[in-house]
Amino acid sequence: VLIKDNHILVAGGIRAAVKRVKMHTSERIEVEASTLEDVREAVEVGAHRILLDNMSNATLAEALKLVPKGFETE
């Protein structure tokens, strides 16, 4: 299940969006993240994969430091 920015906006944030999806399915969840805070939140809430979206090379490098080993990114 891909949770994109518009889904996050409507749900009221990444935590709320992921929680809502987990209530209805056990499928793997990918979260679109465009800030470092989005990355932190997606990891904390238990997303399975993060789509690193519209980040500069410097921000991308910082984002990858926040992601645990073995965690999938795109």
Protein architecture, described:
The chain has 74 residues and is α/β, with parallel strands linked by helices. Helices cover 51% and strands 16% of the residues. The protein is built from four helices and four strands. The chain has helices spanning 5-11, 14-24, 36-45, 57-66; strands at 2-3, 30-33, 49-52, 72-73. Strands 1-2-3-4 form a four-stranded parallel beta sheet. Helix 3 (36-45) links the parallel strand 2 and strand 3. It starts with a strand and ends with a strand. The model has no long low-confidence stretch (mean pLDDT 96).
Search tags:
74 residues; alpha/beta; 4 helices; globular
How would you summarize the topology of this molecule?
Elements: E1 2-3, H1 5-11, H2 14-24, E2 30-33, H3 36-45, E3 49-52, H4 57-66, E4 72-73
Parallel strand pairs: 1-2, 2-3, 3-4
Helix pairs in contact: 1-2, 2-3, 3-4
